[in-house]
Amino acid sequence: MPEWLHEAGIGESRAALVEDGRILEALVEPEDSGPRLGSVMRARLTHLLPGRQGRLSLADGTMALITGVPAGLSAGRDLTVEIVREALPEIGRPKPPRAILTDQEERPGPDLRARIAATGHPVRTLLPHQPDALEAAGWSELLEEAQTGDIGFAEAVPGGALVMTPTPAMTLFDVDGPPPLEPLAIAAAEAVAGAIRRHGIGGSIGIDFPTIEGKAARQAVTAAIDRLLAPPFERTAMNGFGFVQIVRPRPRASLPERLRADPVAAAARAALRLLERVPPGGSNRHRLPAPVLAYLTARPAWLAALARRTGATPLLESL
Asked: Which domain of life is it from (predicted)?
């Protein structure tokens, strides 16, 4: 039975849904990721925009966009809004949270621990002094997959290669490998469906398969997607050039988007995870890449939390 593994880390919470020693879904929630989905909070309408949209200043100082602004509502009004999409940290063009008007009472949105508990799967909380169950399930490999985009499925098809590339317009998957092309494409479709779930990818998704001859063969490939990718989603048929587009809800950033938007921050949080797990009696002197060291030095609260958790003040040096 699938089980959630949850860690309340320094600077972030993380979780993975694991079955038979394999990660099915991975979630990371940085502490500075902004208002959570489902939060209801006070805001001020600062600007009106075309199309019944507007800009908001939320109670915590975050800027947001609002849709469905009623006619006659003027800038400067105080409102109660619900966050319906979290901030998206796209490289070069971060998108602010999106909100709608509501008459509900103010409340914070559910955190990562509450979200995974709501799925109905059992949740096991991991502590740093315990065996590293996340790592045993492939956590480091998963993060590397998210950062590099290289997704192997050579076990299914020798020579098969799949590359995932997030872009501002869509997340692209490029399939490559030797003939015969139909089994290659079906295996790639299964790998793509697994990666979409594993990394929490939403929005527009494009898959560039090899060009496959015959309607029945193309339908067999898209049937593999339909069989393995959980709804809700919409997709196109495969066109004559092997391209398929999928559209899924995008309420928050995917794991690749989070890691790639600020690689230094991601590396710093990953380093803290490792430093928490230094065995008692181990050296508290550690060498880190200069950008990571600078990032952590600028966050003394994180280093203080590390000292409390490990019982030793870390001595950090630059590589």
From this structure: Bacteria
